[in-house]
Amino acid sequence: MNVLEKLKLRLKDNLFTRAFLENLEFNLRPKETLSLRPKDFLIATARIYLLFLGAYVLSNVFVSLFNLGYLNEFGDRMREYYEQGRIGWAMYAMNSFPFNIFLMAAFSILFQLYSATTSYAALWILGEPDRSFARMLGIAFSTGTYFLLAFFPILISYNLVPQSVQKDTFKMSFFLGLNAAFLILAITAQCIFYVRMCRSIFQQNFGRAILTWLGPFLFFVIVLTTNL
């Protein structure tokens, strides 16, 4: 077996491929997840999500090292603003390497908790008899994985794009549109599988499953409008 064949075999069968296929199996055959205890389903989906999240964090740190000079310079400027009281600690951390990467990772986990909590509340409001927060959080982790996967090509493209593209309006518009396409594909996949899993696991019809998926967004809009 030559090196190329070994590489192909490794790409077909590795930790990440197995995790992706396991997650895809949950999405395509959600009824089979009912054979798992809610706790086991949650552990399985959280493990997959954290695996890809950890890979993204490491990839982001590695790629950022190629722009370390600029990142340190920008971080020093943010520290000056923070010490002068012009920005808060959160703004400083979100714009300072490597704190911004770890904060983003923590935020992604908190967002899945928020999504599961509001969607579970939607199940309660809709009067669904079959409710399980562990399963809802598992659905959030499982479908949220597609957002993580979309960030990998975006991360690579943002760090490899030449300066000439950033100065050309047409090329930059195409570049931003390409990255937007990755996010749109991720949102589409997340929506389809979220609704599919809610319908199978919680015995919802299509309309109720859509409302459950929209729960996080609707709650955010309600909070925003009531505080204006």
UniProtKB/TrEMBL annotation:
Segments passing through the bilayer: 48-71, 101-126, 138-161, 173-194, 206-225
Membrane among keywords: yes
Keywords: Membrane, Transmembrane, Transmembrane helix
Name the UniProt record assigns to this protein: Yip1 domain-containing protein
Naturally occurring in which organism (per UniProt): Leptospira fluminis
